[in-house]
Design a protein that fits this description.
It contains eleven helices and no strands. It is an all-alpha fold. The protein has two domains: 107 residues, no CATH class; 80 residues, no CATH class. The termini are far apart.
Amino acid sequence: MDQYRTEEEQVEALRRWWSENGRSIFAAIIIAGSLSFAYQTWKGSVETKQQDASDLYQAMLQLVSSADASPSQQQQGIALGEQLKSDFSGTTYAQFAALHLARIAVAENDLAAAEEQLRWVLGEASKGSDTAQLAQLRLARVLAASGDSDQALAVLDSQEQGTYQASYAIARGDILLGQGKTEDARLSYAEALSLAAVSPGQVNLATLQQKLQALSPVPARELAIPEVETPEAVELEPVIDEIATPEEQED
């Protein structure tokens, strides 16, 4: 009888505990289940959005990257790029698309449109990211080509340069050379050469060495640099560098 009474007391204690705590436990289970469902739904939505953006971006590349693309195909590709920017502005694919649109604008000598695309990228990309660094570098060249060399230099000095340090130094040298500041340009090219030695593969070393030699009073044999033409024959880097875009880096 004592054992039965003990078990009965245990059951009663359990019943009281459930009466006091059962609702909160049940509510916690419901909330946890709802949060899990909401997270899975959100995750699925994000993945779907990323896939849609990727498909649209690939379609754009096929239209604008073909060497024999017709003017109609080029315009279709530009339209897809603008659609990416408007419908998927939060994705990196939209930023990549804007970089391509800037390149197309430069090829068409529409520097104002190129500047607009690059500034859009800078407004969307994470500060200090590879995409932001690349957009900043290209924006500086576009501004210099537009005649605003001082702002171009300010742009180069206002961003973390990350893996593009050598390219930034070359761009700075090109802009300074365009301003007639030969010695400052030479120092920038020398800095770029030092940075490229630490991180090879960033830039075209042969072209950089030619630029440096063209401005250097030191004989070529002491610099260990191949002989090149006179400074007047050395061409500046193009407005848009041949630097791999982020999607090319991922490949």
